[in-house]
Fold:
Amino acid sequence: MINLLKKIFGSSPKTDFASLVKEGALILDVRTRAEFKQGHIKGAINLPLNELENHISKLKKDQTIITCCASGMRSTSAARILKSHHFTRIHNGGGWNSLTNKIA
Structure:
């Protein structure tokens, strides 16, 4: 019951995105190509959300993946899609600008 409450109210431990990246996590930016060209995290790959399911086979199911977008809405959807395809090491990084600060 306590774990459920922690999940609901956000009291669970914070993800250490910097450590995940140092350990080889893939940063998956699901914004449009135009948005990605305007700025992105170095080393991130761009796979727009509307194309994710068509190209999901390009991703490794056993790799740690951090999703990001502009605000966190699309990255949440991308994480959900990946989990529905049995990816298990998925972390929603939210907005790419915010994620940049978390991995610095």
